[in-house]
Amino acid sequence: MLDIIKYLRGYLRIRVSGFSPERFMNLCSNKDILLWDIVQEGDSYCMCISLQSVYKLKSIARKTRTKVVILERCGLPFLVPVMRRRKIFFAGFLLAIGFWYLSGQFVWDIDIEGNSRITKDQLETFLQAQNVREGMRKDHLDIESLEKEIRRNFSLVTWTSAKLDGTRLRISIKENDAPILNADIADKETEGTDLVSEFAGTVVSMVVRKGVPQVRIGTVVEEKDVLVDGKVPVYNEDGTAREYLFTDADADIVIEHTTLYQDELPFDYIAKEYTGRETTQPFVRLGEGFEGKLPGDNSYLNYDRVMRQGRPVLFEKLRIPVYIGTYTYREYQNVEHEYTQEAAEGILKENLMQFLTSLEEKGVQIIEKDVTIDTSGSMWVLHGEFLVQEPAGKRAATVKEETAVEESQDGG
Question: What is the dihedral of CA 83, 89, 90, 92, to 10 degrees?
């Protein structure tokens, strides 16, 4: 506290040298002049003295035949005149403090963690609906209400926590790992579903876990034929159906069938050729809403734009979404080229390999293939015919007409 008072009143750092510096200090003590931080430097002494007491030193210095030299001026009284001469610096300093304080009253960054089954886009859409966004005032944010709304709107969330960390809003959630059965699924299970074929072919493999099989290995089926029925009959003692129980048919079925593939490639194509000319345009961006561009000449007809941006260290620490960067415009011309036969075949075969890879990822086994490449009009054309064995069985609602017939027969 004493140091603060000394700073506010101002003080000097002086050097006393000459005939008798020790007598000089004794006389100062007799006249109640406070000296502190006294350090001997050879035959002289350095010390601090208050600004009010320095005017009393003239007579003491004359009496003791010593010389007093001011080494340093310290304290607020010496700082204010400097600030008056540097008004722009002082104004900028005050504006920086004001900006720092005001920016701290807003939320500039939202961090979400703990979500895996709930996507970040879903949570961001929810936050926007709750008017929780970057740039909002902190005093408009109700943390407790936000936590309750997250748990109420997302059934997977079992625990949530939201807290402010400076200008960042941290939202942590925990999801329920156990499967959740909803009413729609339960209702669907009571209705029953069949497995039907998506294409025509021959059944080569079949393992049924639930439902009544309608085909067997070697059966030739058409598209939309029922493979496994979800309507399970319950028989009377005489072998007649008393009622039907409905279930979701479940089976592993493989059907062998022929699939066709065709790909076309024009003789000519347009390619970019860069001229080497480019223009750079600086910009400043605030969040996603405001962007200011400095003047720049971009008169190119065809160009690519490359953006480079970064956040200044000050704004990065404050979590304020202020970015500076440049747009680089690179001019190009569209030039027409023609595929050679070798290049065209290479592209078509690469596309074919991607198609075959996608089939293998779906569990499709390729038995035979027949591929040809020829020309048609102004196109290179690849034709492919493949004999494949593919998992089959698409769900469809179980037909219940027979149930109604049985019930009417029982009633008669």
Answer: 180
